[in-house]
Structure to design on (936 residues):
């Protein structure tokens, strides 16, 4: 057992965040009101591609209540242009400014920033701007981007292809030669919008007298936003602070700074007053990041018993117009690295093409690589059909068993500590897989088609170092700082920036358990670049469970050692004979002798022992441990009504393998939230662009987020596991969203007697077509 | 252009001038600094802005402040009494109902109305009644649990 198995670990402790949130005292970016604060709104392009030939802001500027109207030309002398930050060989990295100087490249591209005394006035003034855009033919999607006859969107590129790469891992050619069958499919996933309930925004507070800039950002990564603003504005880093208040969800959309942040900060500097920007939902849907706009052509080389000898994948990713700081090759690298999942897939042919287009940027969204699970799990069902074997059997022959680990996959990642087989078998058992035909018959009597879909996945949470090598990024460590306060309580400072994950609670559980104190004696602080350790990632990539926990555990352990050392000095007792309980240090066996931590803290601050610095402070840099994969199996049982094409999820079951749980309620909440988003992608959500470049989902009337009536009860079972490392908590933030689309698609396909489905979303109209094609008599099912 | 209104918010009566075109949500948030009511879409779909107007759940983003003249408005800030959480807030706390918290005030106000009208709802009734509130974080199950738990408490 690990030493962290203690009173609070594994307890669904109520969240310390909740009393404020539940009483309306949360403080989100739009809740921040500063004296003399101005409001800014963006004028954005309403055409996908064009040249701004006229931008007359005079009427707007002279409207009462309007302070200034900034354009790209105003910003250019005050800001540096940007590009994606990692020089990946072969990747084009076009430069762009915070606002365009002349060319607009997507509907929503910011053209001007109107600052006024109120948001309403700024919006009124926006209507007075006279903008003429000479429209240019749009690069409406990947097909246009790959058409070499069409001009490049960026002057510093010679085409609209950002990156092309082709590589083999193992010997796929030989595998395809030797294959008994080759199973092929083309997949198309739709663009989706992450849609956190809180839109993006920021408040820039600039004090001209001392050149200090404080930026309140709804972000997942305050230090990254600071770095971006320092670089873009040339603002002295020692005079720039980013503060993250409560954040109303992000899911990856707030993982990188936004171009708009630079404009807002530049405006505050120019005007010497606080400037607030909050986008509205239309802007969020139209101009914030999208995700999952991919086309994949996949082939599997298969033996007669269903073993996957090789996979060949050709993926085209439409990145939209502007690249994020983290280059778009990150997305495809992740897909490639995780493609084998927990299966014995040793030979991979991989071809990727990343293009620009006149669309909003493709950004991070919960499990950005999820296409790999979709194509693999759908293909496994097709393989089963092709070789005439049960699809559970086909998965069994391909899954990596625990005994075969550690095992290096075809993608070069090491699979270790992965209980995929156990999770798979448990899921099938719990779902009643063996009784499926009975259930189908029963549903048939009620006139329904019933299907069961399976999806098994692996997610790097945070992933072993071999995974990070495979995606070409150094594995970032994580720091935490522990400080003993004057009253003997402990403040833990983390570089995480939670936006719903409950880190203030879970990390306090870890610290309090390690120290032997109550939750009330620990405070977790985050979000202020002045007082938190530097981290470019913040809260992303499902790393907190392992990395932040590890950093907090070890810094707290070091704090405990310092406390006991000091108490040992004061009591003249060996530290091994001391322990902490009831917020005091006592000798073992003599609980009546106590040094309250408050007393010890006072001594530490005011009269430290010789050689010790005042106060007790520890810091820990935690590097990744072994293993680091979470995963499991989802099973979705659906009914399809052949008369109406309506679908209903009868059961949704997750068997999760994520190691030890700090706070089970929080873990399960993450899983269910992810599954809900996956169901949304499978059945309801789409953020499409038309072939002429128009955007078709600018409000919630078009972009359908699932409600409480669309999301079913989601059953979750957790596996126990043998820890590979003391810090055996692994992330679960993304898994729900990764596996659910595949589970739902496979369930519907199964309901339709294996009808091939390879596009998302699965809309009722599409289902109706497939049902019509079914050669079936419903009454005889 | 402004209009004089009398409005009682969380039991405090106020008489003041409001801009004709200011939404009730903006009025509450900006003029009264009651920022617990949130704006998720400003087009009446997500329910984050839900408040009670004379006891009935209302989308404050779709109402004008002027339309609230003569009404009693209850916002999230008006629920807890003397530091004691309302049973709905208590139920949600106990059941880990929320994550980022942005949709939360809207859900709580909608739930207060629901449990007043249907004191012992079934899970289906809860899901149907709350289908006008969108949550992107939780997948709803923990919210439903919180509502059912609160219903027990209120008995």
């Amino acid at each position: 057992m690990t030493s962290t198995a203690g009173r609070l670990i594994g307890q669904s402790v109520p969240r310390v965040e909740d009393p404020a949130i539940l009483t309306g005292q949360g403080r989100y970016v739009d809740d921040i009101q500063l004296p003399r604060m101005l409001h800014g709104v963006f004028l954005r392009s309403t055409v996908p591609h064009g040249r701004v030939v006229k931008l007359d802001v005079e009427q707007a500027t002279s409207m009462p209540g309007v302070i200034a109207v900034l354009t790209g030309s105003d910003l250019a002398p005050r800001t540096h242009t940007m590009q994606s930050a990692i020089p990946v060989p072969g990747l084009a990295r076009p430069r762009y400014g915070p606002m365009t100087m002349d060319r607009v490249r997507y509907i929503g591209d910011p053209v001007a920033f109107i600052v006024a005394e109120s948001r309403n006035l700024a919006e009124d003034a926006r209507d007075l701007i006279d903008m003429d855009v000479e429209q240019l033919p749009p690069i409406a999607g990947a097909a246009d981007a790959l058409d070499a006859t069409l001009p490049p969107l960026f002057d510093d590129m010679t085409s609209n292809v950002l990156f092309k790469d082709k590589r083999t891992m193992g010997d796929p050619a030989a595998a395809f030669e030797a294959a008994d069958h080759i199973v092929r499919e083309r997949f198309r996933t739709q663009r989706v919008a992450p849609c956190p309930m809180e839109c993006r925004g920021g408040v820039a507070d600039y004090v001209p007298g001392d050149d200090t800039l404080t930026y309140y950002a709804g972000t997942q990564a305050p230090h990254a936003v600071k770095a971006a603003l320092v670089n873009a504005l040339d603002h002295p880093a020692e005079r720039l602070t980013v503060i993250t208040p409560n954040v109303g969800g992000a899911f990856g959309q707030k993982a990188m700074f936004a171009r708009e942040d630079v404009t807002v900060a530049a405006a505050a500097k120019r005007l010497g007053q606080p400037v607030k920007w909050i986008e509205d939902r239309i802007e969020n849907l139209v101009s914030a990041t999208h995700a999952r706009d991919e086309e994949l052509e996949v082939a599997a080389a298969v033996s007669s018993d269903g073993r996957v000898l090789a996979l060949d994948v050709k993926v085209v990713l439409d990145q939209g117009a502007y690249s994020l700081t983290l280059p778009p090759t990150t997305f495809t690298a992740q897909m490639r690295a995780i493609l084998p999942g927990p299966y014995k897939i040793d030979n991979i042919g991989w071809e990727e093409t990343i293009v620009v287009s006149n669309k909003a940027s493709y950004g991070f969204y919960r499990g950005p690589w999820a296409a790999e699970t979709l194509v693999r799990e759908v293909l496994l069902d097709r393989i089963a059909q092709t070789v005439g074997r049960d699809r559970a059997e086909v998965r069994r022959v391909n899954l990596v068993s625990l005994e075969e680990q550690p095992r290096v996959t075809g993608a070069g990642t090491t699979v270790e500590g992965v209980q995929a087989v156990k999770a798979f078998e448990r899921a099938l058992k719990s779902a009643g897989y063996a009784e499926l035909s009975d259930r189908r018959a029963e549903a048939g009597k009620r006139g329904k088609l019933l299907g069961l879909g399976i999806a098994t996945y692996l997610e790097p949470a945070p992933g072993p170092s071999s995974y990070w090598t495979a995606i070409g990024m150094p594995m970032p460590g994580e720091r935490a700082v522990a400080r003993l306060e004057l009253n003997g309580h402990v403040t833990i400072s983390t570089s995480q920036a939670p936006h719903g994950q409950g880190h203030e609670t879970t990390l306090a559980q870890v610290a309090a358990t390690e120290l032997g104190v109550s939750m009330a004696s620990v405070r977790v602080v985050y979000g202020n670049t002045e007082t938190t350790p530097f981290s470019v990632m913040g809260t992303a990539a499902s790393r907190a469970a392992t990395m932040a926990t590890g950093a907090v555990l070890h810094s707290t352990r070091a704090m405990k050692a310092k406390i006991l050392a000091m108490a040992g000095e004061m009591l003249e007792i060996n530290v091994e004979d001391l322990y902490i309980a009831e917020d005091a240090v006592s000798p073992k066996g003599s609980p009546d002798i106590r040094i309250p931590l408050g007393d010890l803290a006072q001594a530490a601050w005011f009269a430290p022992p010789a050689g010790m610095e005042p106060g007790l402070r520890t810091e820990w840099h935690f590097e990744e441990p072994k293993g680091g994969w979470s995963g499991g199996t989802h099973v979705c049982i659906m009914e399809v009504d052949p008369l109406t094409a309506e679908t209903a999820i009868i059961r949704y079951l997750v068997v999760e393998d994520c190691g030890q749980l700090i706070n089970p309620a929080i873990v399960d909440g993450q899983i269910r939230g992810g599954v809900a988003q996956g169901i949304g992608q499978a059945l309801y959500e789409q953020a499409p662009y038309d072939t002429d470049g128009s955007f078709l989902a600018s409000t919630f009337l078009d972009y359908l987020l699932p409600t409480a009536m669309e999301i079913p009860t989601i059953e979750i079972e957790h596996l126990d596991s043998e820890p590979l490392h003391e810090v055996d908590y692994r992330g679960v933030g993304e898994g729900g969203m990764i596996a659910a689309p595949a589970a739902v698609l496979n369930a519907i396909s199964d309901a339709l007697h294996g009808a091939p489905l390879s596009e998302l979303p699965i809309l009722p109209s599409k289902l109706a077509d497939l049902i019509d094609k079914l050669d079936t008599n419903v009454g005889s099912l | 252009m402004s209009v004089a209104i009398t409005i009682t918010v969380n039991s405090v009566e106020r008489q003041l001038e409001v801009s004709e075109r200011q939404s009730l949500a903006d009025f509450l948030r900006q003029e009264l600094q009651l920022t617990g009511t949130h704006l998720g879409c400003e087009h009446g779909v997500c329910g984050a802005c839900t408040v009670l107007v004379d006891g009935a759940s209302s989308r404050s983003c779709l109402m004008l402040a002027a339309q609230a003249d003569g009404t009693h408005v209850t916002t999230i800030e008006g629920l807890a009494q003397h530091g004691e959480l309302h049973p709905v807030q208590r139920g949600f706390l106990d059941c880990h109902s929320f994550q980022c918290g942005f949709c939360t005030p809207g859900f709580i106000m909608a739930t207060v109305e629901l449990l007043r009208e249907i004191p012992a709802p079934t899970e289906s009734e809860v899901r149907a009644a709350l289908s006008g509130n969108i949550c992107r974080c939780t997948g709803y199950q923990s919210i439903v649990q919180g509502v059912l738990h609160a219903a027990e408490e209120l008995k």
